[in-house]
Structure formats: structure tokens, C-alpha cells
């Protein structure tokens, strides 16, 4: 069989960082460290929340969902990134590429939804603390987790089929060491308007709306906090939001940066585009466990006890 069949290539060729191919062996080390921190750190957070009765509370249940989503995101990119940078193996089968594309976009959307759920948790905790336990019951938390997961699956389910219907014959070389929808659809030798419109619709209706409601929740939180008479109480209330705000920034700032570079940075070197995309996918899973470990003393204590039990 040749490189292409009737409608699409048999396989795609993944690339590392264009123009920096000679540095790939040197980049493999830092990438491996990032994966170890992402997978190890989030596993420890999950163990801490699961084994410590004191952390069986809404805020920490949402944190465990975030950690699981981060681990899943890391696992979705790990096979091809490892093969590209460490083994210099660039081929990926067409269907495998579609599956990876779906998983990456799905877990990214899930993380956005979890960050929104966490902002609702902070809103209720600060603006309506007396009803916190009755509003955020275990049943409600589980329902929110299922809703976020179902939204990702249902919204992104058409993507692989939208790619599969396109005759891809321009090239089979992708711009990254993993598969993304915008990257794949650009290789089509036909009109991609439907894919572009659907991609924009997904971006605005999910990530865009999530960010809007997170911003709105913090406006309401700030309004409520400013009404507190005591300066110490105001700072204490805001301090409970710091970890979540940092997690939101770690997720959305690289995403907005990638979108901006993609839309307006046509003359920027290609490796900058690739580096920005890598930062967007790799930084949140690495930073989130570090942020929550550093800023939340209950998590720190639980992690120390987890390691103590493992040592024993």
C-alpha cells in the first residue's frame, strides 16, 4: 500500500520542534522530568485526598478530579512525545491519531469544566457559607463531575468523523509530536469550512463560556469579600482562592497565548508556535500539584502522611 489511500494517509508523520531537531536528545530529559512530576505529583494528590478523611470535602473532591484530568492529559500525549523525542520514531497510524486527537481535546475541555466547578465551590464557600454543606453534597459533586465529562464526550464526538470525511492529500506531516484537530484539518485538499466553524463553536461555547463564568464568579466573590469589615477576614477569604486562581491562570494564559499566536503570529518562527502549544499541554499538569501542595497546608500535611505510610 502506498503512502495515501483513496481519502487519507495510512499514517501521519509527527515532528518535534522544527528547526531544533539537533536538540531533541537534550529536550528528551526535561520532557521526561515534566512527565514524572505531572504523573507522580497528581498521583500523590489523589492518594492524599483518597486516604485522608480530613480531605473528604467538596474542595478536595474537585481537586482530585483536576488531578485525574491532568494525569489523563499527560498519558494521552506521552506515547507519541516519548517516541518522537527519545526513540526518533515519527509514524502514527491514521486511526490512532484520531483517537489521540479526541482524547487530548476531551481532557482539555474536561479540565476547563472542572476549573469552572471549582470556582462555583469557592463562590458558595465565600458568598453563602451557611448553605455550603447543603448545596455541595456528594451527590451534587458527582453529578457535576459526570456533567463535565459527558459535555466533553458529546461535544467532541463529531471531531474524528469530521476529519475522516476530509480527503487529506497535501501532506501527511503534522506540526507537533501529537495529534490536534486544527493541525490535521489543514492537510485537507478540500474545503474545511465545516471543521473550522465547528472548532470555533466548540471553543466559544465551552472554553469561552467557562472562562466567562469563572470571571463572573470571582467578581461576585470580590464583591462579597469587600463587604467584610475585618481586613484579616478579607485576606483569609481571598487566600482560600489563591490556588484556584493560579490553576486557572496556568490553564488559560497558555491557551489564550496559543490562540493569539495562531491567529496573529503568521510571521513568527514555526518553532514558537510549537513551543506555545507544548506549554499549553504540558504546564498545567506539572504546575497544578505543585501549586496546591505549596499553597494548601492541609494537602501538604496529607502528602507528608502518605509518604510516611509508604516509607513504613
From TrEMBL:
What Gene Ontology terms describe where this protein resides (cellular component)? Answer: plasma membrane
* Keyword annotations from UniProtKB, A to Z: Cell membrane, G-protein coupled receptor, Membrane, Olfaction, Receptor, Sensory transduction, Transducer, Transmembrane, Transmembrane helix
Membrane topology per the entry is: Multi-pass membrane protein
Where is the protein localized? Cell membrane; Membrane
Pfam families hit by this protein: 7tm_4
The source's superkingdom equals Eukaryota
Listed GO MF terms: G protein-coupled receptor activity; olfactory receptor activity
Please state the protein's primary subcellular location.
membrane
Q: Which GO terms describe its biological process?
A: cellular response to lipid
* Residues passing through the membrane, by range: 26-48, 60-82, 94-120, 140-163, 211-229, 241-259, 271-291
Keyword Phosphoprotein annotated: no
Domain named G-protein coupled receptors family 1 profile: which ranges? 41-292
Q: What family is it from?
A: Belongs to the G-protein coupled receptor 1 family.
The protein, known as: Olfactory receptor
